Amino acid sequence: MKLIELKQAQKTAITNLKKRRKQELGFYTFKKDRSVRIKLIDDGGAELIEHGYAEERTQLDGQNAKRALKRAFSREFPRSHKVYVQEH
Predict the structure, then answer these.
(1) Of 3, 10, 14, 22, which has the most beta carbons under 10 Å away?
(2) Which residues, 6 or more positions from 11, have their beta carbon under 8 angstroms from its beta carbon?
(3) All residues at 6 or more sequence positions from 47 whose CB lies less than 8 Å from its CB, including other chains
(4) Which runs of consecutive H residues, i.e. helices, occur in 21-76?
(5) What is the average pLDDT across 7-31?
């Protein structure tokens, strides 16, 4: 796992959704008790999985992906400046 800035993590997630490089990306807090994971689906969509404050699964498409991703990051990492990234 690699520790990166929160803004860079958001850009990484959005880029991965557009270019579909990694099948799954996970973003974790320092204590690893809260996370946001993005899992790509074969039909061209993606699934956003939140674990921590909110236990939610959201289907992402091109319209709502960026907004839902930023909302999930602000909800799960409200005071974090750095997060861990794990590629699957």
Answers:
(1) 10
(2) none
(3) 38, 39, 41, 57, 58, 59, 60
(4) 65-76
(5) 94
Residue boundaries of the structural domains of the chain: 2-87
- pLDDT tens digits, one per residue of 44-79: 889 999 999 989 999 998 788 899 999 999 999 999
User: Which residue, among 2, 5, 10, has the nearest Cα to 36 in the 3D structure?
Assistant: 10
Q: Is the entire prediction scored with pTM above 0.85?
A: yes
Sequence-ordered alpha helix ranges (H) in 1-88: 6-19, 65-76
| Pairwise CA distance, residues 42 & 15, whole Å | 17
